[in-house]
Known about the structure:
Blueprint: H1 4-11, E1 14-20, H2 26-41, E2 44-49, E3 52-57, E4 70-75, E5 90-99, H3 104-111, E6 117-121, H4 123-130, H5 134-146, H6 151-165, H7 170-183
Parallel strand pairs: 1-4, 4-5, 5-6
Antiparallel strand pairs: 1-3, 2-3
Amino acid sequence: xxxxxxxxxxxxxxxxxxxxxxxxxxxxxxxxxxxxxxxxxxxxxxxxxxxxxxxxxxxxxxxxxxxxxxxxxxxxxxxxxxxxxxxxxxxxxxxxxxxxxxxxxxxxxxxxxxxxxxxxxxxxxxxxxxxxxxxxxxxxxxxxxxxxxxxxxxxxxxxxxxxxxxxxxxxxxxxxxxxxxxxxxx
Length: 186
C-alpha cells in the first residue's frame, strides 16, 4: 500500500501533524521535536510547537494555501476515540495513527471515518517491553505510514535527542521507535 502522505507532500510540499493524548508527558513533545529535526535534515522547514508540528519543503511553493487541519493525527490514548470531536481537525484524506491493540478496521468503524488512512500500533505494549515511551513507538508508526520520513535519519535524531537528555535511555528509545515502525498495521 503506497502511503497517502508521500504523494501529498511530493505534490504540495506541506505537512501538518497533531497529537492527542499524553498530556503532561514530556516524551510526547520530545517525539514531535524528533520528527521536526528529522524533517529539517531531509530538507524541510519544520517546527514543533506544543502538540503540533508543521513542515514545508524548501524547494516547493504551494500553488494554493493548504487546507486547514492536520494531515496526520496521532492519538496516544485509545479512550480519546470516544470523543465526538476527535476527527474535527483532520483533513478528510489524512492519516490517523492510534496507539491501540485493536485492528485499524475496528477503529475506522468506531469513528465512522472511511475517507482517510487508519493505522494502529500497540504502543503501550511495545514501550513496556522495550523500556521506551509510547509516544516514541507511535512516532515510528506515524513515520512509516506517512511514507516520506527517512528511517535512518529518524533513528539518528532519536538517538541524539535521548543521548543529550538521558544517555542510558537512547538505546531503548531507538528500539521502541524501530518496533513501532515495524509493527504498525494499516
